Amino acid sequence: MRDDESAGAPPGPDPRSRGPSLREALRRARLEAAERADVVIDLRQAELARLEILRDALAPVFAETPPDVDMFDVGVTAGERPRLFIDMVAFIEMGHDRRLYRFLRDGRNGRSLLAESEQVQPIVDAVTAYVAHRLVERERLLADEDHSGGEPQSSIVARRAAARADMATDDVETAAPPPAAARRYPGWARLLAVLLAFGVGGGVGAVMVFALMRAAAKGLLPGVG
Predict the structure, then answer these.
(1) Which residue stretches belong to region Disordered (predicted)?
(2) For the chain, how far is it from start to end, CA to CA, in angstroms?
(3) pTM of the full predicted structure?
(4) Using CA atoms, how far apart are residues 75 and 59, in angstroms rounded to an integer?
(5) CA 32 to CA 44: how far, in whole Å?
(6) Which three-class secondary structure state does DSSP give residue 107?
(7) pLDDT digits over 37-48, tens only?
């Protein structure tokens, strides 16, 4: 009886005819994310491997640096962007294709590219030249401190700047014209000035005498008449 009822019942929905399944979509999304993560991890591992090869190639260079020099700290950092640091400001990283070495340096004017190559040896040569220049700069700083009797480098720089400012002030004062001296006139000019003074004085005196005589004649002066 039950078999007859089951046979006469309408067939159920076919699972294959259902719409998109969220569970199935999530499963596919997780698989794709895992594949992408594997690719990213593989690329990062490839970058680290190439940077470690470069680090090993640079080991003989840094083995020749003086033992008391501590300005270089060579090491590979494994982050989002792996880098091989040479010191606090210079480092090597891989290009976007993960094959090109890029030797960069951070400075006051921004980041500058010192060298780039897909081969190890050109980067080794560029880093060697960079290390040599840094050592020469260090020697010059130490020589300046020795000449100044152990004075700090900052004091040396400040003292030199003050000296340059004093020299500039001296140059300005030297270029300025001296104050005008008292003018000296020739002898004939001085004699003419004396005669003019006497002439003017005599003329004024004559006018005054003439005025007094007229006043006396008219009886304008008291006690005269």
Answers:
(1) 1-21
(2) 185
(3) 0.51
(4) 11
(5) 18
(6) strand
(7) 666 677 888 899
